[in-house]
Amino acid sequence: MEIYFAGSIRGAEADKPLFKRFIEHLSGHGKVLTEHSFDFDYTQEIQLDDYGIYELDTGWLKDADALVAEVSSPSLGVGYEIGRVEAMGKPILCLYRRQGGRQLSAMIGVNRKLKIVEYDSEDEALKAMDDFINAISET
After folding, report:
1. Strands across the sheet with 66-70, in order?
2. Sign of the alpha-carbon dihedral angle for 46, 48, 54, 58
3. What CATH number does the domain containing 63 carry?
4. What is the total count of domains within the chain?
5. pLDDT averaged over the chain?
6. What is the value of pTM for the model shown?
7. Quick one: pLDDT at residue 11?
8. In the 8-state DSSP scheme, what is residue 34?
9. Domain limits at 80?
10. Which end of the chain has less Cβ packing within 10 Å, N or C?
11. Other Cβ atoms closer than 10 A to 129
C-alpha cells in the first residue's frame, strides 16, 4: 500500500515531531510517499522550487492508494491535496486534534466522503490510522 501523508509544513512547525511519529507509524502499513517531506528543516522545503514541489506532490497523489491528512492547522496545500484525492475517489482520513479556540474547517467537517477523526492524544490518532488502513485493506 502507498500512503500519502499530508500536514501543514509551512504553518505548523511545532507539529513536526508529531508528524514524524505519524509517518513512522504509517510506515508499518506500507510506503509513505511523503516521508522525506517531513524529514528536514522547513526552511529547506521553502527553498525548493514551488513548481517542482507541485509536480512531485501531484504525482504522489496519483500514485497513492490513500491519503492521511492531519488537519489541525489550517493549510491551503493540505486542503488542495484533500480535494484532489477526493476527486480521484480514493479513501481519505482526516485527523483533527481538539484544541481550544479552533474549529475544524466546515468544508472538511461536513464532507461525508472523508473519514474524520477528532483526537486528544497521539495514541487515539495512531489507533484511528490503524483502523482506517485496516478497513480499506479489507475492501
Report:
1. 31-32, 2-6, 66-70, 92-97, 115-119
2. negative
3. 3.40.50.450
4. 1
5. 89
6. 0.89
7. 64
8. T
9. 2-137
10. C
11. 21
The DSSP element (H or E) to which 21 belongs, if any, is helix 16-26
What values do phi and psi take at 59, rounded to 5? Answer: -65, -45
Q: Please say if the pLDDT value at position 48 is more than 50.
A: yes
Question: Distance between CA 131 and CA 47 in Å, rounded?
Answer: 36
Length of the chain: 139
- Which phi and psi angles does 66 have, rounded to 5°? -160, 160
Q: Which residues of 14-31 are buried (b: 16+ CB within 10 A; e: fewer)?
A: ebbebbeebbebbeebee
Residue with cell 477528532: 118
CA dihedral 14, 133, 39, 114 (to 10 degrees): -50
Q: Which residues contact 10 (CB under 8 A, 6 or more apart)?
A: 42, 45, 46, 75, 77
The three cell numbers locating residue 21: 511519529
Nearest to 97 by CA among 78, 129, 119: 119
